[in-house]
Amino acid sequence: MAQTAELLGDSASAIPWPVSAATLAEVDVVIAALADDYDYAIAQLGVVRGCAIVSGADSPRALTRLRSLHSAAAASGSVVVVGCGLAPGYAEILAGHAATLFDSVDEVRIARAGAAGPASIGAVKEQRRDVPALFRSGNWKETSRLEEQVWFPEPIGAADCQVVRGGGDFVVASLGAGVAVTNTLAESKSPRWPNRADDGLGAIRVEVWGEIDGRREVVVYGAIDRVSIAAGAMLGVVAERIAVGTHGLTPGVHGTGALSDPAGLVGELARRGLQAAVFEGAPLS
């Protein structure tokens, strides 16, 4: 976090945990990159003080607890952005960017592989243990533990991913209840080398389906990076947007997909080293 603060400039500083309400008295934006329960605790303090909060927490329990602060945040004028990682996080921004290319969008499929550190690995395991669900016809529908093989950018390549609910609620909130949403997640161990210790490398694949000039089309984005580095870039860029007032959010709790100007965000993240590529089909012969 000290490095993130340094990148943000002289107006940013790293504050060691634990943090008291008094410490936040003169703070405008808090970047929380702690274990999930601590993120919730600091978000509670920040909402009381009217601070903006940018959190990297992504486990189902943490996201549920953070979303429960929506009414309090709206009342205090606090903007809270949660799930600032690869997915949830960067994936929602890419989905929003792709959606601007369509006349209408009807389906989004997000897949993620990789984790970084014990807390991140624990969040992946919690998501895969949670009740799997698909968003269809305006409702979340529980399903069996479906698995599918997903192709990520190299060197991760193919990985077996399980359907999870994940951060799908944020996709629905940003793109509308008429969009079908599927989230899948690989195991936290290295997908290609299951007997090798996790090296922190992660990847996402984002598919957006819809209509362009009456034709059903698909746009597929992929990205790969160290999970911790991707989260740091996301936290820093989102916090900067909040600090300068170009986020376009009302007070309350939001996912990254609700941020305005997804194309600008993709460009800024690319300048910070987090880049996405477009998957393009190749002819069979």
Helix content: 25-40%
User: Please, what is the average pLDDT?
Assistant: 89
What is the terminal separation in angstroms? 50 Å
CATH architecture tag of the largest domain: 2-Layer Sandwich
**What would you report as the Rg, rounded to the nearest angstrom?**
18 Å
Structural classification: alpha/beta
Query: What number of structural domains do the residues give?
Result: 2
What does this structure look like?
The protein has 285 residues and is α/β, with parallel strands linked by helices. It folds into two domains: 116 residues, Rossmann fold; 137 residues, Dihydrodipicolinate Reductase, domain 2. It is 33% helix and 27% strand. It has nine helices and 13 strands. A seven-stranded mixed β-sheet has the order 7-8-9-4-10-11-13. Strands 1-2-3-12 form a four-stranded parallel β-sheet, with helices on both faces. Strands 5-6 form a two-stranded antiparallel sheet. Helix 5 crosses helix 9. It starts with a helix and ends in a 7-residue tail after the last strand.
Task: Show the helix and strand layout.
Blueprint lengths: L1 H7 L20 E4 L3 H14 L2 E4 L4 H8 L2 H7 L2 E3 L8 H10 L4 E10 L3 H13 L3 E4 L2 E4 L4 E5 L6 E7 L3 H8 L4 E7 L14 E12 L2 E12 H18 L7 E3 L7 H10 L4 E3 L7
TL;DR of this structure?
The chain has 285 residues and is an alpha/beta fold. Helix content is 33%, strand content 27%. It has helices at 2-8, 36-49, 60-67, 70-76, 90-99, 117-129, 168-175, 227-244, 262-271, and strands at residues 29-32, 52-55, 79-81, 104-113, 133-136, 139-142, 147-151, 158-164, 180-186, 201-212, 215-226, 252-254, 276-278.
